[in-house]
Amino acid sequence: MRPFAYERVPDPAAAQRAVPVGSSSAAAPVPTMVLAGGTTLLDLMKLDVLRPERLLDIRPLESRLGAIRLDGQGLRLGALARMAQVADDVEVRREFPVLAESLALAASAQLRNMATLGGNVLQRTRCSYYRDVSYAACNKRNPGSGCAALDGYNRLHAVLGTSEHCIASYPGDFAQALMALDAVVEIEGPQGGRSMPFAELHRAPGDRPDIETTLRPGELITAFQVPAGPWAKRSRYVKVRDRQSYAFAAASAAVALDLDGDRVRGVRIALGGVATRPWRATDAEAALAGQRLDEASAMRAAEVAFRDARTHGENDDKPELGRRTLVRALLEAQRMEIA
Q1: Where does the FAD-binding PCMH-type domain lie (predicted)?
Q2: What secondary structure, in 3-state letters, does the chain show?
């Protein structure tokens, strides 16, 4: 790990001197980055992928930005709330089960005790070409250098939202649950506070895979607002992975259902492990709306969700795996007993 300066910040105004967006790598170091739980950042610093000159530790802000609040309007989660804290919260598990499940299935118990919600949604890809600086060709790490994964090892890479410049998959779980529940992200920055749909936080790779979010320089995520809705209780997160513990998704699905008997009155679907960013399958939702939910209609919706999938050799099985994962999530949500 390279030398860096360390500073604990007492308030958001001090933290906003950070530059948490853009690229920080062997090719393009940045002066300052934000440290929350550190479970991703410190890993990448040890690998020499990220080279910040200074870390701003925002953990002193946890008392202000770590609360969990539920009322008639919905759920508000502070960005510095710990993953384990939210996964174990009784009200979250009862009212928004997809959120609790997505967090409980992520990482390991030790990491969930440290990692924050804000840091989790901003975690970097697990693509081995990004994480290994001996590979020069990685447009996320070294813009303009190419994408070694296109013709390399890409079994766990994305099949949705890819470009000729990057096929790295987004690795998180919690983000899919937020997408499925139409969450809003609250942000503070030098120009003041703002809110936006969580679906607008992450960018498609396009020709600039190194720019992963729409955050502006100096902005910090402070909270997530999850609205109450008729589908929130009947929600499910299904994650398929190589092993049952501490593995990233080969495919996952977050679904939220509003049913009238066995007919779909409303549905929300987000996919993980298969796309370059958290992925909302709105066309699949439209295909299910008003339909009787059974295995056949779920599979038709899954076919719609993956009709634009593009594979790259070793991940040719991903569309089928993604379809089956989505069908399973829909049918499991249908069978949930709602109090």
Answers
A1: 1-231
A2: CCCCEEEECCCHHHHCCCCCCCCCCCCCCCCEEEECCCCCHHHHHHCCCCCCCEEEECHHHHHHHCCEEEECCEEEEECCCEHHHHHCCHHHHHHCHHHHHHHHCCCCHHHHHHCEHHHHHCCCCCCHHHHCCCCCCECCCCCCCCEHHHHCCCCCCCCECCECCECCCCCCCHHHHHHHCCCEEEEEECCEEEEEEHHHCECCCCCCCCCCECCCCCCEEEEEEEECCCCCCCEEEEEECCCCCCCCCCEEEEEEEEEECCEEEEEEEEEECCECCCEECHHHHHHHCCCECCHHHHHHHHHHHCCCCCCCCCCCCHHHHHHHHHHHHHHHHHCCCCC
The reply to whether the predicted model has a pTM over 0.90 is yes
Residues in the chain: 339
How far apart are the C-alpha atoms of 112 and 120, rounded to whole Å?
10
pLDDT in tens, 200-228: 999 999 999 999 999 998 899 999 999 99
pLDDT band at 32 (very low <50, low <70, confident <90, very high): confident
The separation between CA 223 and the C-alpha centre of its own chain, rounded to angstroms, equals: 15
Q: Residues near 212 by Cβ (< 8 Å), separated by ≥ 6? A: 21, 122, 124, 140, 202, 203, 277
For residues 138 and 131, give the distance between their C-alpha atoms in angstroms, rounded to a whole number: 9
170 Cβ contact partners less than 8 Å away, ≥ 6 residues apart:
125, 158, 202, 272, 275, 276, 277, 278, 279
CA–CA distance, 77 with 98 (Å, rounded to integer): 14
**Within 10 A of 304 (CB to CB), how many other CB atoms are there?**
19
Annotation: CATH topology of 62-228+237-339: 3.30.465
The Cα 325–Cα 281 span in angstroms is 13
User: Taking the chain, what is the end-to-end CA distance rounded to the nearest angstrom?
Assistant: 51
